[in-house]
Amino acid sequence: VVDYRELNENTIPDRFPLPLISDQIARLGGAYFFTCLDMASGFHQIPIHPESVERTAFVTPFGQWEYLVVPFGLRNGPSVYQRAILKALGELAHTYCVSYMDDLTIIAETIEEAVERLHVVLSVLTNAGFSLKLSKCSFIMERIEFLGYDICAGQIRPNVRKIEALTLLPPPSTVTHLRQFIGLASYFRQFIPKFSEIMAPLFKLTGSNKGKIEWLPEHDRIRSLVVQRLTSEPMLMIFDPQYPIELHTDASSEGYGGILLHKVENRPHVVAYFSKRTTPPESKYHSYELETLAVVNSIKHFQQYLQGRKFTVVTDCNSVKASHSKSDLSPRVHRWWAFLQAYDFDIIYRQGKCMNHVDFLSRNPL
């Protein structure tokens, strides 16, 4: 991946808006059959203007090369691509073809209607010069996952993967694990009425040493109640870009995690949770590399929300913020930042004691 950070800083942003996720999800309600089309090579289907080709130049051991199509990493790639797709689809984009970046979903109420509409959309895309990646396409399905939601039988439900980073975890077995869970719950305590009263039995368990704790059914009921509050309204909300977007990340040798948030009236509302266990090689990374990896993989996980939108990354690693503008990076970190350059975000540093909510996910990954 070419490092286009300097080019992006000198590029006038294209403000073409991406579709609202809530609007696109609402259009799927009432449909019973779905065809999902995935565009091949994404941005590479869009040609570069001849006057801009030289600005994409990069050097390799085999000489200097230039892109003739839009490469990954250019600032305006998402906006240009979305405009091209909507222009190609025309009125179809406002009727039965739901478009979000390189994901197209054709909705229908009957199988016959689904086949007919698929033929129309394929004809339109072919005439416009677009091609599909067949291995990632699904045809006439009764259940699909779209932008973080499960769609089936005319109904729309949040995808369980948005909250499984919490719901699938086993109860804490040590004082350390319990304190990490309390740190997560405390960050969102304003959404849990009588928080101190409810959590009192768990607070008492933290007074012992760091060894095993006696976890009773009473404690598990409290934990289940807190998890239920953290994974339902008003705590968990549908993504809405009119509100400020924050991505809180943290990492440890055990795993890394991220929480996608909106700030509504200065209060944090979760959109989705994410955690992942580190691989054996990753667990040996330097802490700075782990924190950067947490940012990269969290953005990849939430890319449908973040691509083409301004957001803020919050981390407890000051080195990650400093490397935002550095050029003397290790090859591994350089590759990560080459990926991140396609996203428009600021980085804020906060002390670790203010990041207990996401620290829990990094130390208790799935």
From TrEMBL:
EC class (word): transferase
SUPFAM superfamilies assigned to the protein according to its UniProt record, in alphabetical order: DNA/RNA polymerases
EC number: 2.7.7.49
Keywords: Endonuclease, Hydrolase, Nuclease, Nucleotidyltransferase, RNA-directed DNA polymerase, Transferase
One function term, GO molecular function aspect: hydrolase activity
InterPro entries xrefs: DNA/RNA_pol_sf, Retrovirus_Pol_polyprotein, Rev_trsase/Diguanyl_cyclase, RT_dom, RT_RNaseH
Domain Reverse transcriptase: 1-151
Listed name of the protein: RNA-directed DNA polymerase
Native source species: Lygus hesperus
